[in-house]
Amino acid sequence: MLYKLYNLTINAGLKGELKLKKLQLLTLAQNQLTEIPSLGALLSLNYLNLASNYLKNLSDFNKLTTLRSLQILVFRNNQIRGNLPPSIGTFTSLKSLSLANNELNGPLPEEGFCGLRNIEELDLYSNSFDGSIPLCFSNLTSLKFLDLSSNRLTGTIPTTLFYRLSSLEHVSLSDNHFEGSFSFSSVANNSKLQFFELHCNNRMLNIDTENPPWTPLFQLNFLRISNCELNEPSRVMPSFILTQGNLRLLELSNNSITGRIPTWLLKNNSGLQFLSLGGNFFTGSFVMNSDHWFGNLYWFDVSMNEIYGELPPLMGFIFSNLVYLRLSENAFQGTIPPSMGDMRNLYYLDLSNNNFSGELPVNLIMGCISLRFLKLSNNAFEGNLFKSEWNLTNLHHLFMDNNLFSGKLSDGIMNSSQLEILSLKSNLISGKIPDWIGNLSSLEYLVLAENSLHGSIPLSFSGLQQLKLLYLSGNYLHQIPPGVNLSSLAYLHLADNELDGPLPSFISRLSSLISLDVRYNKLSGRIPSWLSSLTNLRTLLLKGNSLHSPIPAELCQLKNTSILDLSFNNLSGKIPLCLCSMPFGEKKPLPIDGTFSSNIFGWSMPRIVAYEYVGLFGVLDYPMATHVSISVSENVQFLTKSRYEDFSYSILYFISGIDLSHNKFIGPIPPCIGYLSDIHSLNLSHNYFDGSIPKTLSMLKEIESMDLSYNRLTGEIPSELIALNFLSVFSVAYNNLSGRTPAMVGQFATFEKQSYEGNEFLCGMPLPDCGTKNTKLPELYDEGTNDSFIVEFQWSFLGSYIVAFLSVVAYLYCSPYHSMLLYEFFTTRFRTCVSPFRRR
Q1: Is residue 807 within a helix (H) or strand (E), and if so which, with residue range?
Q2: For 33-37, 189-193, 513-517, 610-614, which range has the lowest pLDDT when averaged over its residues?
Q3: Distance between CA atoms of residues 252 and 224, nearest Å
Q4: Rounded distance between C-alpha atoms, residue 638 and residue 541, angstroms
Q5: Please, which residues have CB within 8 angstroms of residue 53's CB and are 6 or more apart in sequence?
Q6: Helices 787-814 and 816-839, packing angle to 10 deg
Q7: CATH number for the domain whose boundaries are 533-538+550-593+653-782
Q8: What residues have CB less than 8 Å from 183, skipping those under 6 apart?
Q9: Which tens digits make up the pLDDT trace of 496-532?
Q10: What does the domain layout of the chain look like in residue ranges?
């Protein structure tokens, strides 16, 4: 130690002035302090730790200004807000200052920091400092550790910042808002530099590593440059990396770098442990041979590039100690090399979105016993799933969707008893859903959609008490046992199946349900009143069934619903007024988020920190000990802006709408619909609504799509609608509207005649001018769009004609006197007509 230490740890009850004049080290961390204690008498104090308390401001910072001998000051992990007082510069002996993980804001005070001439460690990580980096930082010539990451700093990075900082070892400038350009040659002479990190938040910073030509005097252990504009416009790989042989961690992701995949990086850096090159434009094949072995590498990510060809046959030997392997979103092809089964330490494997084919090698499903995450989505893998050799006993998350797997599901997957996510969407799987799936009691997310499964949901699903999302759409399921009990289910998708009869009653017990999608089945009967018991329901999609009768008033009790789709049914009657009391569009927090997130394991990009005590800059080794998370979003399809779109729940939080189209609703449109001020989409088309368009619809200030076409609406289009500034789709076509169209201002200037056609007495731009006589008969309905209405009209007319004719016959039969008069009338008329012909 540098000093003879007198260590003291005290509790939150510290009061008054401490009088231990020889005290040099004082730790008050994690003592729930809400203000800085008075320590004026500790004139020999050189270490003060106030980390992890409840300090909220530095208004009493002057209590410390008498501690002239202070060398280490730690305020990390508090709740300090406001500006940093310039009096920080009075601590001229300070060597280490940590203010990380607070809420400090405002610019970095030059009169404060720039007075710290002896500072060696400056840690300002994770605050809200703004403005630019003070130029006087270049005068802090003793600086070894500088962390300004995760703030709101702006402007350019001064080119002179590093010229005089010859002692620098660690620099982190990530997650700010820098812009302009930065020449990496400015650090060329920092011979002690080992750690450099710069992740760009906004891609407004161009980093040039090539001009002017330079030769680095440093040997980096850690280099991270990501999400930046790197070497524009050439986008070449930084050439100085060729001179770096001590790299242990290298990340150059999301920089749009071009050129061949740099396999030389691995050959030049035998000690490399972490390599991330994802999100670039690297191309070429992945060529390795038996002479290559990278046993120290445990993190390898080249996803989202343009790499093609097959994986090396000895992949499992070359990268035998990998923990994390991500090759997704490239153009790899061929089969998975059987040697990958030798990667026994592999936790995370993502080969999705490539052109891989063939069956899964037995070695893989038997040998990779540490796998917790396996993603093979969007390839052309084939064969039967879950063979008896399946031995991935630690697997938690399995994605095999959008492949060509076929046959029935076998129970080999039961060896993965800890499975939380199972996604087999869009394959060729057939047969019934097996009972044994109900034994995977840890499942939270089950996707078997778009296969050829038939039969019913097994009663054994009641064993899936952790299940939050069940996605079975696009199969041939026809029944759900009423006894199924899924108490935790939040998202249920059963669309595009063959369910018939009333809405399955087991749904009435799903008290946690947030989204229900049973579109395009054969459901019939009334909308059940028990839907009102689903108090958390946000999305109700009943489209494309044979439901009939009016909307039940109980449906209005769904006080959290934001999307309601009842279109393409046989519903009738008037819109219940209570529908206007439903909270469409009100942004309430979800009880269960639609994004499934889970920590996979404790490996990730590290944040390197310095020791907070003597030996100040013994930087912690690169432990990579945070977390990797995966997330799965729950999607809902809904008609808006005249097209169906998939919305994840992160978007659905901001989207709301009502679709009652293609039914048999009658009566006027309730004016109270206009009170749903937050709604984004309203579709009432293809019904029998009559009366005028309510002026209150102009109150729908968030509306983007409004379709009132194919009804029997009359009167004028309210001119007040031109105030709808976000309206991008509007149609009142094929009604009986009259008068002028709304003025072509704002959004209404974008609507063409298709929005208004089929209204005989409607005129004005974009229709013919009102001074021009329009003799064309209105086309009330497009051909084929309302055949059922035309047929009903024809049968009604024929029936009326027959009834009238029979009524006349019956009357004449019952009245001989009038029958005789009618006979004489027709006889006289007949003789008058034929007499001229007889005379000829």
Answers
A1: helix 787-814
A2: 610-614
A3: 6
A4: 8
A5: 28, 29, 30, 31, 32, 33, 34, 78
A6: 100
A7: 3.80.10.10
A8: 159, 208, 211, 212
A9: 999 999 999 999 999 999 999 999 999 999 999 999 9
A10: 533-538+550-593+653-782, 788-839
